[in-house]
Amino acid sequence: MSKLILAVLFAAALPAYAADLTIRVADVASNDGQVMVAVFDSADAFPTKPMRAVVAPAHNGEVQLTVADLPAGDYAFAVFHDANGNGKLDRNGVGMPTEDYAFSNNALGKHGAPGFDAARIQVPANGATATVNLR
User: Fold this and answer.
1) How far apart are the C-alpha atoms of 48 and 38, rounded to whole Å?
2) In Å, what is the CA distance from 42 to each residue of 26, 49, 63, 108, 116?
3) Taking the model in full, what pTM does it have?
4) How far apart are CA 127 and CA 40, in angstroms?
5) HEC string of the chain?
6) What is d(CA 120, CA 89) in angstroms, rounded to the nearest whole number?
7) Cα–Cα distance for residue pair 79/127, rounded to 1 Å
8) CA-CA distance, 102 to 81, in Å (whole number)?
């Protein structure tokens, strides 16, 4: 019986993960492949160590994805249209992306990804919606 009480007390002490982040990806160029999103929860992780990733089939125009059950807090995300469905962002010989991509807040970097602060969005406990435009 004491194990059951401990389990209930432990479960009650865990934080609630109820916030959903809905991401609307505009300017998807075709129905080919998939749209991939990586979500980051810190500057140390951004843009190489995502805490969560979601994928949806591509649709010409806009694709909507939901990252469910996030703790309220600050996040940044990167998204790209994996048009050939190979599961990675393709690049040319000098390292420039050849598939459309975007970062939260439509942030831009000078020579690569923007900084976490430029891409940072706040997700409150009741959730948030963000829209980005692929380029």
Assistant:
1) 9
2) 25, 9, 25, 18, 7
3) 0.86
4) 16
5) CHHHHHHHHHHHHCCCCCEEEEEEEEEECCCCCEEEEEEECCCCCCCCCCCEEEEEECCCEEEEEEEEEECCEEEEEEEEEECCCCCCCCECCCCCECCCEEEHHHCCCCCCCCCHHHHCEEECCCCEEEEEECC
6) 21
7) 19
8) 9
Beta bridge partners of 103: 78
Q: What is the pLDDT of residues 4-48, one digit of tens each?
A: 444 444 444 445 557 999 999 999 999 999 999 999 999 999 999
Beta strands 101-103 and 34-40: pairing type?
A: unpaired
Q: Which residue has the tokens 């991401």?
A: 23
Pairing of strands 34-40, 73-82: antiparallel
Neighbours of 76 (CB within 10 A): 27
